[in-house]
Structure formats: structure tokens, C-alpha cells
Amino acid sequence: MVQTVGITEAILSLHDVQEKFQLSQTTDPQFFTEWFEGLPEITDIEKESLNRLKNRFLYYVADGAITEGTINLIMVSPLLEIVRLFDPPFKVRGEASVKVELEDEDIVLQGRVDALVVQNHFWVVVIEAKRHGFTASLAIPQALAYMMANPHQERPVFGMITNGQHYIFIKLNQQMRQYDVSDEFTLAKRSKNELYEVLQVMKRITDLIAL
Q1: Does the model's pTM come out above 0.85?
Q2: Which residues are within 8 A (CB) of 20 and not within 5 positions of it... i.e. 6 or more apart?
Q3: What 3-state class would DSSP assign to 90?
Q4: What's the confidence (pLDDT) of residue 186?
Q5: Of 173, 144, 170, nearest to 156 (Cα)?
């Protein structure tokens, strides 16, 4: 009899996701160059919008933790709007329900992603912004599990994890069972706005999934 288990219950660590899906993080530096090579320029108008978003986040987080829903409203949706991911040829699905069958096991992992999914090739996973000691990297295992539900395994799938302050990108090749992650971009730096780099990577990924 097939047993259904929630993703958030079954996947708690990188070890869990690597073991259940036979995944490994590649050591090939050429596997995921999209987050640092060939990045498009951004305009002065876009920079103004990104500066406003950074200031907005700092304004909200001053009151404490920010929920996933609020992060979606004040940060993620505006970023997707700047990249025009809501318009043709793209299509966004929110809170996608996913099911993943584990090989050689009578188990189906099921969950509802607190995410925005673009064309099944770009998964934006939003997590709650905590006041202290929390990093977006803790959500990498569950993000990979969600991304494994991508039905189009012939092409790489990309993901972005954010809690509003920190941003990490993921690339997954389901056929090779390999993945890699970018450096973490953060709004914690006073001297620069790393949303500039975040938008550049989003534009680069957008160009790829539009092909």
C-alpha cells in the first residue's frame, strides 16, 4: 500500500533529500554558471525600484518577523513584476500542490508549496523572515524536494529561496541527479544593495526558461 507523507515531515535536512532522491551536490564549477556569468545589465529605473524594495523590507522587519505572505506581497511579487514574469510567454502559479514518488519505495511525498512557480522551470520558495539566527539556506532541502516534482525532466530547473533579506539560487538537473547553489545575496550590507545582483540572476534565468 502506498503511503503519503508530507514533504515538510519527510525532508528535514540535506541528508534526507540526498538520500531519498539520490541527489548529490556537484563539484563541477561549470554546472551552475548562470548565477555569475553572462548577467544582463539593469537600468537606472530598475535600480531605483530595487532601492525602494530594500528600504521597504528594512521598514517592515524593524517590527520583527515577517510572514511568508507579507514577503510575497512586499518583495517577491514586485521582483517578478520587474522581470515581467507575470506576462506572456510566462505564467505564474502560486501555492502549487506537488506530489513526488520515491523510487523503490511505496511512498509519495506530498505538499503545497509556499511558492510561485514559473513555467515549471523556476520555483520561488518563500520562507518566513526570522528576527535572529535564521538563514535561507535552511530551506534548500525542501526546495529541492519541491523542484523534483517538475514534470519536464529533460531540462534543468531553477529555484530561488528567500526570506526577504537573504536570497539563494539553485540549479537542479533531475536526469543527472545533481544540483548546486549560488552564493547567498543579502540585504544586510549597508554599503550596497545586493538586490541588483538578485535581479540580474533572475533576468538570466528568465532568458533561459523562455527558450
Answers
A1: yes
A2: 10, 11, 102, 105, 109, 145
A3: coil
A4: 93
A5: 173
